[in-house]
Structures are given as structure tokens and as C-alpha cells.
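Researcher: First entry.
Model:
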Amino acid sequence: MHVASDLRIYLSWCTERDFDPLTVSRGQVELYVRWLPEIRRFRPSTVSRRLSVVANFYRTCVIDGILEHSPAEHVRRPYVPAESPTLGLSRLQFEAC
């Protein structure tokens, strides 16, 4: 469900800018990645997940012979800390309960 939604948002973004998703350049994919936090205000973890969906879409296109190479292949992902900012009990706190 989330993958379909993420891909739909990317394809809509391309359509709004008159970009053909099958002929975009790496620079255009990078514009999308910058748009996510700057305009949509998404956190790095969400941006990374959405870029992962786009990269997998293009990887599948390469595997299926639709594209020669993926425009998302060398797009840098935002840094996502290993520690989750989500509030909740740590493992030790949970075991103590």
C-alpha cells in the first residue's frame, strides 16, 4: 500500500512538471528528492524510503529492458540516524515492565 502511494506521488510529481518518468535524468530525480523535504516537509527517513521506491521502480525497468540505465542509481540518499526518534520504551524499559 505504501509503495503504491509513494510511486503514485512520484509519477504525479513528474506529470505536474511535464517530465516523462521513462526519460528523466538523474538531475530531475534529485530535484524530486529535494522537493520532498523542502516543500512537502518530509523527514529524512521518509525521503529515503520514497527514494528507495523510485530507485526500485527504475531498477525493475532496467531488468525488464525498458531502460538502459537507472536515473536514480547514483542519487544520494539523506542521512538517516540508526537511532529512531520515535518515542516509546527502550528494550530494557519494556523488559522492566
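Researcher: Second entry.
Model:
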Amino acid sequence: MKIIRPVTEEERKTWPKEVIVALERPFVDGRGQIQPLVDLAMESCVLIESKKGSVRANHYHRSDWHFCYVLSGSIEYLHRPHGSSAKPAKVVVNEGQLFFTPPMVDHAMVFPQDTTFLVLGRNSRSQEVYEADVVRIASLNE
């Protein structure tokens, strides 16, 4: 089994402070452009397609974080600190936006339209590692 790295205070200092992450300016020349997304050590990148009306997540991660970049569509992202009984905050993330979920944050994603997005994660996405780190919770979107 792969060992999940513990989260350090030094690592926490590198995380975005807000859900929506401002993108750096792209590198542009005659060939086109390169848009920087994430420049942190990570172990996984997955492409997810979600159908209109579907819901994902309704969980938190013990140590994993993820940046999500919306390629097409939009996501209604619900989040709150784990252990809180407050109503989750909702942020609408649109095509071309990047957002961040740190560890120990309850979160859910609702898809008001067909949506494709990239997930760039700290930990491996192997099923064994993912299941050791994720904790499912009651639905945030009800």
C-alpha cells in the first residue's frame, strides 16, 4: 500500500486562501498560449465528465487537496469546514475557472449542465489510497 504523506504546516502555507483561484497570466506568443494552473507537488490528474443534474463528492479528505479546472460547463460547489453544522457556502464555478478544496472540508459538486473538468490532486488517485483518505458524509445539497 502506498503511504499517504502527512500534511505539514509548511505545505498549508502554499495553499490558496479562497475557493476560486486567480489564474496567472498566460504565456502568449505567435504559437498560442500556455495557461499555468498549479505549480505544487501532486500525484494525480484526472479528467471527469459529469451529466446535467448529477452530484459528486459529498465527502471530505483527511489529507488530500485538489484543484479543479472547469473545461466546459459549470459546477455549483458547496463547502464548509468539516465538523461544522452551518449551512454550506455555495460558489458557482464556470468554464475557465480554477477552484481549490483543502483537506478537512466537507464538499459536494452539483452540475446544472453537462460539465467536463480536470482534478489535480495531492495524493494518488489509486483506489486503495483514495479510499484510505476519503470520508463520505450526508448530502450537502439537500
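Model: Note on the second entry: The CA atoms of residues 3 and 25 lie 36 Å apart.
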